Amino acid sequence: VSFGFKHGIPYGTDLLFDVRFLSNPHFVPGLREKTGQDPAIQEYLGRQAEYPELIAKLVDLLAFLLPRYRRENRSYLSVAIGCTGGRHRSVAVAEALQGRLEALAWPARLIHRDISR
């Protein structure tokens, strides 16, 4: 689930990651109206040195944790990715994680809770 902290943390979250340390596209002319699903936002974030490293580290952590949760008979794990408003950074990170996890054969259902706010 991608979300905005200003709208509250999603109910039922098992793991929560705060990505507000990434530069906010909201303050960049021409990017405010876009979302993290837009290639311009993904390119903007991708130019930040921390972004690809963040994605790699989160994928590594989840790839480590998921089999262990499965071993403990957890049928699902709710992972929340939060930024300020839930439209740019959290959406892009959640999209990237979903793609990488599915490439590792971990099905992932994605919800962008606050993308239209």
What does this structure look like?
This protein starts with a strand and ends in a 14-residue tail after the last helix. The chain is of the alpha/beta class. It has 3 helices and 3 strands; from the N terminus they run E-E-H-H-E-H. Strands 1-3-2 form a 3-stranded parallel beta sheet, covered by helices on one side. It has helices spanning 39-46, 50-71, 89-103; strands spanning 2-4, 15-18, 79-83. The radius of gyration is 14 Å and the shape is globular. The longest helix is centred in the middle third of the chain and has 22 residues, at 50-71.
Topology, number of strands: 3
Structural shape = globular
The major β-sheet equals: 3 strands, parallel
Strand adjacency order, main sheet: 1-3-2
* Termini Cα gap: 15 Å
List unreliable stretches of 5+ residues: none
Q: Tell me the number of helical segments per DSSP (H or I, 4 or more residues long).
A: 3
What is the succession of H and E elements? EEHHEH
Strand content: 5-15%
The rounded Rg comes to 14 Å
Q: How helix-rich are the residues, as a percent range?
A: 25-40%
Classification by helices and strands = alpha/beta
